[in-house]
Amino acid sequence: MSATDAQAKDVNRSYDQIILFGDSITEMSWDQGLGFGYGAALSDAYRRKLDVVNRGFGGYTTAHAIKIVHEIVPSPDVAKVRLMTVFFGANDACVPSHVQHVPLEIYKENLQNIIQHPATRAQNPRLVIITPPPVDEYQLEGFDKSKDTVYPSRTAQRAKEYAEAAKEVGASLKIPVADIWTAFMAAVGWQEGQALIGSRDTPMNSKFGSLFTDGLHLTAAGYRLVYDEVRKTIRAHYPDQDSDALPMLFPAWGEAPR
Questions:
Q1: Catalytic residue among 64, 136, 217, 243
Q2: Which positions fall inside the SGNH hydrolase-type esterase domain (predicted)?
Q3: Is residue 75 a part of any domain in this protein?
C-alpha cells in the first residue's frame, strides 16, 4: 500500500464504540455540573481509542429498552461495537402501584432479551450488566418528613432485590456484572445481614446520602463508584479492552506522517 493509499484509509477510519445503554443515571453521566460522571470519565479514559456513546434515556425501564434496542445498537456495517453496558433497573424497581414498575421476573426476562436480541448478537460486543444502585429513602420524593408519612415510589429493599436479579441474569448468561449496589453499600460500611442503610428503618446516614442528589440520581461521589466498578469489571473480564491496553487509533504527533 502506497503512502497516499494509507493516508486515504486513515481519513476514512472510524473509532469502534462503547455503548452505554441505560436510564437517566446513564443519560446524566456526562453532566459537567456534577464535577464527575462515569460516562464522561470513560470517554476521557478511552479518548483516541474508542468512542463512548451515551444512550441513556430518563425514565426508561427494561420494558422501554427492549422495544428500542434495535435502534440503539448499530448494524455492523455502520459501526463496530466493542463494549456495551446495560444499566437498567432503577425505574423497574418502583413499587407495584407506580406507573414505571416492572415485575421482577419480567425485569429479568427483559434484561436477558436485550442481551440476546438479534441486534446485540449481530455486534457480539463484550457485555457488562450494571446493577441498579441502592436508594436513600430519606431523600426520595414521597416521604413527608414533617409528618413522617411514607408513600414512596422506591424502597431500599426493592432496590436490593432488583440488583440481585441483575446479578442472577449475569450469572445465568455468563455475562460480567458490575455490582454497584454492593459497591455503594460497602463504601458506607454495610455488611450482609445488617438492616439496610438508606432504609427509613435505620438512622439517616450522611455519608450514604452524599452519594445521591435526590435519593436516586447520583452525585460525583456516586458516579465515581460506578466508574471504578465498571473499570474493574472490564479489567477483570476483558483485559484486552481496558483503555490502558488499547493503542491510540491514530499515532502520537511525533510519530504521525508529515
A1: 217
A2: 20-225
A3: yes
Look up the domain containing 230 and give its range.
Answer: 15-133+157-188+217-245
Active-site annotation holds for 214: yes
Domain at 91, CATH number: 3.40.50.1110
Q: Is residue 147 part of a domain?
A: no
Calculated CA dihedral for residues 243, 247, 248, 253, nearest 10 degrees:
130
Q: What is the pTM of this model?
A: 0.91
Residue 30 lies in a domain: yes
pLDDT in tens, the chain (258 residues): 444 444 445 545 689 999 999 999 999 999 888 999 999 999 999 999 999 999 999 999 999 999 999 999 999 999 999 999 999 999 999 999 889 999 999 999 999 999 999 999 999 999 999 999 999 999 997 654 554 555 578 999 999 999 999 999 999 999 999 999 999 999 999 999 899 999 999 999 999 999 999 999 999 999 999 999 999 999 999 999 999 999 998 888 777 677
Residue 217 among the catalytic residues: yes
N-to-C CA span, the chain? 17
Residue 257 lies in a domain: no
Which of 10, 144, 201, 214 is labelled catalytic?
214
Which position among 16, 24, 237, 242 bears the catalytic label?
A: 24
Q: State how many domains the chain has.
A: 1
